[in-house]
Amino acid sequence: MAWTREFAPRWSRLLPERVFPNSSELDATNSMDKLLDGLNRAQRLAVTSPSLALQVLAPPGSGKTKTLTARVSYLITERGLQPWNIIVCTFTVKAAKEMKERIKGLVGDGLEKKLILGTFHSVARRFLVSYGNLIGIEKNFGIADMSDSKAIITRIIKRQGFSIEPGAAGARMSSLKAKSMSAEQYAITRKAAEQEFSAVYSEYEEALRTSNLLDYDDLLLRCAQLLREHPQCVSNIEAVLIDEFQDTNSVQFELMCLFSRFKKNVTIVGDPDQSIYGWRNAEIKNLERMEKRFPGTDVIHLEENYRSAGAILQSAQKVIEQDESRPSKALKPTFGIGDRPVLRKLPTADAEAKWLVSEIRRTQALSADLLKFNDFAVLLRSAAVSRHIESALGNSGIPYRMVGGTKFFDRIEVKMILDYLRIINQPDHNDALLRVINIPTRGVGDVTVKGLIDEAERKRSSLWKIVLDSVQGKTRSDTKLSAQASKGLTDLVNLVLTGQKKLTGKDDQQASPFDLVEYLIKKLELSKYLQKRYPDDYETRWANVEELKAQTADLTAAMAQGEEFVEEEVLPEIEGLEQRLINANEDALTLFLANIALSSEVQRKQDENPDETQQHVTISTIHAAKGLEWPVVFIPACYEGSIPHSRADDIDEERRLLYVGMTRAQALLYLSCPNKNSQSGETTMSHFLTQRGIGAFFETQGPKLYDDAVNELARTLRREKPDLKQLIEARSGYETPEDTHYPLDGTFPKSENARWDQGKNIDFKEGLYANKRRRTDDQSGGPMVPVAGFMPASKVTMQNPAGFSTASMSIPPKITTAASRMEELEAVQSEARLRDIDARKAAPAPIKRSKAAQGSANIMSFFGKPKVATDAAPHPATLTRTSSVPETQIVPKPPASMPRYVSNPLNDISNVSSRDPQRNAIPPTKPIQLPNFKLRTTPLTTKPTTTKRVEQDVTTAPSFSKPYTFLSSPPPPEPPSSPPDQEVIRPGGGGERIETFRPATTFHATSVTQVGNKIGTGRRLGMGRSFKPWSARGGRGG
Fold it and tell me: What does the entry list as the binding residues for ATP (predicted)?
């Protein structure tokens, strides 16, 4: 039964009554008031509970960390427990540091430093350092991090020729260790089909022993072994407190029981609804196991939420309550209802990313910059779906950071220095030595290194011992070493031995970690190496080296304080139990390297002033975001296969994962589902969001963010409200103040439906689509920048053929168009005419022509292109055909605004010069209406009827312009209407009706008969004989 407030009067009756309390009692009262100040009723019950076994179930944002730290302070100040007899276990280094700072503010006097406080792994390491000799663990054991473990496993698999994957093997080993199953135990129970894995597991354990290393799981397992075999190591422990208890595995649960073996005083804080680490072997059933192990366990529920708006909590509660097996728990908001969360449908993953960016811009603008980039987070079920989002943020110029990027201590230049420190501190660390044996280059090739490590494994020795004995001549190596390799290994050995000598020096000659880092930087010529190896980002890498120096300098400063430095590591003395002594100078490097290995991530120091901190949107997995919060949270890709994940074994845990993601939001929450994923596959919205009645808790589009909504947003975030005038100006100045670009059904807007790429190549700016192209600034030489106003060719497609033409498309430079080509031909033609005129003046006598040449026509007459009518008398050799255009008609010159294909039609190409200035004035013609033409379905039995040739007076006959249509360009404009048939009167009287048309029995504008009937006396153009029809040749060629 849960402890209630009714216990308080009974406690008060046990206290003696005094009319005049003394000063110590007043101080105690003030201390108690300070301790309980700011706690709600449930939190006070949890802090002051007299129960030895207590479970505090705390949902998101309910102040569990504040409650736990107040409970620790209460045990010290009110119950009189000694801080060095209290163990507090957290799950992250960040949580441990935060808790220590809060306890310091409550109890003061440096008592927080005497607590055994840290992660499970760091607490276990402290016990192994102090008492590990009892189970055969050497003092300066190393810790194999994830990269070390993976390298060892990969090497074993490669050497044995196994087919198992290193990552899968490592995960399976960790799972077995979490269940306290060693390699020897597994070898006994294994199946025949698992022989490979069993061999890898056994060899991995042997490799760790040879290198004097413990991996993360070994720290817990060996500590549990120590406490089982030597329980007196924790005989002084009076209280154990555990944070995030729902994430503990079987070994951690056993450690909790072993820590509290004597006093049975345990307090845990957790929330079964936030158990999301099943893949990391977390056991949600540990809550039930605790109640069985500790009878009479009291349970207190924290129900008030101090993080999120009411609407967010209601929707999250609706999701988690779909699990009917969970115990019913209330979740009460302390803020207003706020805007309802958004559940948005989008057409594709790419459109989803652009919509997300537009919402960031829109909410920033409409809130009058109440929200900064740091206030936004994008939480993903899997990092694999981040590609489109990263691209959209980058294209829009929004800075972002990926949580879980390269850790500071994993950066190449930093890890190299740390590996040299590891070798100096513990030379048997094979993998650290392997990573730097030829860095910087010292002539030791890959073949030599492989031979040395194989030799070490055959002899069951460390790589360092093989190298050291070979260099010092104690033994002859089985690996053949070149002179260059021998010299390189000698230099390496001298570097390490000198560092060890500095580390173990006496008194003031003993080097600190900072001194060793300085020594390595100088001897390795690190600056020169980085400049040569990484010239593009040398400054950044060197800044990382400087940061590492600063951190070792902080450690050296802590060492100078002597006792305080030791106090935080040493365990309290226990009567009758010998403990290893820790020397601040000698063990400083060991402690420094151990803390690095156990640190999840140590970021660079940065100024705490938020105005000087770089603003960026956070992209993170939901797992990595646990325990964090942001004003605005986006959870994209909410479809089946993403959340719940396609490879998930526990659907209930996937639901809890979505619940955790939703409860990271303080004020605004967006969930979205694209109809097509990043691989263009059709999607189905997550069934967590399609249950009956859940739609009432979500909006289908982004919030409108009017002034009252922004004021509520400011209240929730505890920020100053923007001025009303600012909000009005912000809304009036923003082009799309509402989330209306995409239809609510998740389809593309009409403006994009006609595009072949569905708007993929359109940039999203300020919530609007803006058609852009890029241009280069030749003068500035700067980067390419987007320029608005360009209509891409894809805007006119085959779905909209009315506006399509080749000429209307943008043509890249250096590609010749028809118009530009004709301009070149006109220029050549003009030059040829001028030369012909000059030649005629020089030789006025007519050129004698052959008979065949006199009957030849120019090449344009073959294509049916006539000569142009002129006002002046044409050249005697020029002949024209009849035309329906009156003789007096003058065609106006097209305006300059018309396209080139209209104002500059194709001209005659002829070797007959003309002195007529109006030669190029060609009357417009009526275009042929191709869509109205019907193809013949019967055979062509007769020759096409041609126009009747009439003897004319060349001085009066107008020219004839044949209508042609160029399919790559729109037709020329409609000419003035004229009668279809017209009588042409020959000089001298008498009228005869002349046919001015041919029947449309063929698509061709000309025929062989037509060409043969033409009479022309123009000069030939590349033809040395008359052109005759096929029938005139008698069927013979040529």
Answer: 58-65
**Residues paired with residue 645 on neighbouring β-strands, in sequence order:** 641
The number of beta carbons lying within 10 Å of the beta carbon of residue 403 is 16
Would the pLDDT of 216 be above 60? yes
Contact (CB, 8 A) for 1002 and 940: yes
- Is 64 annotated in a binding site? The answer is yes
Considering only residues 918 and 429, tell me which one the structure prediction assigns the higher pLDDT: 429
Q: Write down the residue that tokens 């503990």 correspond to.
A: 248
- Residue 803 known to bind ligand: no
Minimal CA–CA distance to 673: which of 715, 641, 647?
A: 641
Do 203 and 164 meet the contact criterion of CB atoms below 8 Å apart? Answer: no
Q: Comparing C-alpha atoms, which of 504, 454, 506 is closest to residue 479?
A: 454
Inter-residue contact 994 to 944 (CB < 8 Å):
no
| Three-class SS of 79-106 | CCCCHHHEEEEECCHHHHHHHHHHHHHH
State pLDDT tens for residues 320-335: 999 888 878 888 899 8
Distance of CA 11 to the CA centre of its chain: 57
Largest CA distance in the chain: 149
Dihedral sign for Cα 708, 710, 714, 717, please. positive
The alpha carbon of residue 529 and the mean position of all alpha carbons in its chain are separated, in whole angstroms, by 32
Q: Given CA atoms 173, 174, 175, 181 in this order, what sign does their dihedral have?
A: positive
Q: Give the model confidence (pLDDT) of 440-481 as tens digits.
A: 988 888 899 889 988 888 888 889 999 999 898 888 888 888
Query: Measured between alpha carbons, how far is 696 from 692 in angstroms, rounded to an integer?
Result: 9
Answer positive or negative: Cα dihedral of 773, 778, 780, 783: positive
Calpha distance 178→1032 (Å, rounded): 102
Q: How far apart are CA 149 and CA 157, in angstroms?
A: 13
- Identify the bridge partners of residue 785 per DSSP, sorted by sequence position: 775
Q: Is 499 labeled as ligand-binding?
A: no
Q: Contact at 8 Å (CB) between 164 and 197? A: yes
Q: Residue 290 has which token pair?
A: 């605790």
Tokens linked to 157: 């698999």
Write out pLDDT tens, residues 72-126. 999 998 899 999 999 999 888 778 888 888 888 888 777 888 899 989 999 999 9
Q: Which residues face 788 on adjacent strands?
A: 772
Q: How far is 790 from 777, CA to CA, in rounded Å?
A: 17
- The answer to whether 916 and 870 are in contact (CB under 8 A) is yes
Check residue 365 and give its pLDDT. 92
Helix or strand (DSSP H, E) at 346: strand 342-348
| Residue 1010 token pair | 């037509």
pTM for this entry: 0.64
Say whether 1016 counts as a known binding-site residue.
no
Q: Cα–Cα distance between 980 and 999 in angstroms, integer?
A: 13
Q: Is 336 annotated as a binding residue?
A: no
Nearest to 467 by CA among 445, 450, 492, 438: 492
Structure confidence at residue 89 (pLDDT)? 93
| Phi and psi angles of residue 160, each rounded to the nearest 5 degrees, phi first | -85, -10
Residue 58 labeled ligand binder: yes
- What is the reported pLDDT for 104? 84
- What's the CA gap between 447 and 431, in Å, rounded? 16
